[in-house]
Amino acid sequence: MRESVNHAKLKGSGIAILILISFAFVFSVFIWKINDNGTRRVVLFESKANPSELSYEVRFLRNSLTGDDIKQYVDEILLGPISPQARLLFPLGTNVRSCFVSGKVLYLDLSEEALQITSGEASNTVFALKILKKNLFTNFKNIDIINLFIMGKKVEA
After folding, report:
1. CA neighbours within 13 Å on the CB side: how many for 137?
2. pTM of the predicted protein model
3. What average pLDDT does this structure show over 18-40?
4. How far is it, in rounded angstroms, from Cα 62 to Cα 35?
5. DSSP labels for the chain?
6. What percent of the chain has pLDDT over 70?
7. What integer pLDDT is reported at residue 148 of this predicted model?
8. Among residues 51, 130, 131, 143, which is most buried (max CB within 10 A)?
9. 83-119 burial string, b = 16+ CB within 10 Å, else e?
10. What angle do CA 146, 151, 152 make, to 5 degrees?
């Protein structure tokens, strides 16, 4: 009789431990899903020391609830590099006038500040546009064609 009571206690405590572990697992997955709202993106910039080389930085950006991931990424590029060894792609003040995707084609329009390059401050416009395209193709595999505009006028890079 005594053995069956001990056996029942062990069985009951085993079930309690199993329930506790299951609850901890479900709770962990829930917390992970809540906090996992970022995406790793690589950003390339021109090197100050050797303009023919590119330096890169890794940025963790929040996933956009409105689907503005590309605009958010371009805004991050326009803020410039964190590293002092890298050069701005576009002059400070450059911003995104419009950005949208139609099918697999990205249409990106930058402000006129993108053309106002002073020596040493930022990359030249053509090189900056090429690096911008490389950044976008690297980080957004759903884009096949990028149409770039500055103040509504198409530019080639």
Report:
1. 10
2. 0.71
3. 75
4. 10
5. -HHHHHHHHHHHHHHHHHHHHHHHHHHHHHHHHHH--EEEEEEEEEESS-TTSEEEEEEEEEPPSSS-HHHHHHHHHHH--SSTTEEBSS-TT--EEEEEEETTEEEEEE-GGGG---TTTB--HHHHHHHHHHHHHHH-TT--EEEEEETTEEE--
6. 81
7. 96
8. 131
9. eeebbbbbbeebebeebebeeeebebbbbebbeebee
10. 60
Of 50, 127, 103, 52, residue with least CA distance to 135: 127
| Amino acid at residue number 68 | D
Tokens representing 157? 């890079």
For residue 33, the number of C-alpha atoms closer than 13 Å in the C-beta half-sphere is 6
Q: What is the pLDDT of residue 74?
A: 93
Taking only the tens place, the pLDDT of each residue in 62-112 is 776 566 889 999 999 999 888 888 888 888 899 999 999 999 999 999 999
The Cα 33–Cα 51 span in angstroms is 41
Q: Does residue 3 carry a pLDDT above 90?
A: no
Q: Which tokens is 103 given? A: 């099918």
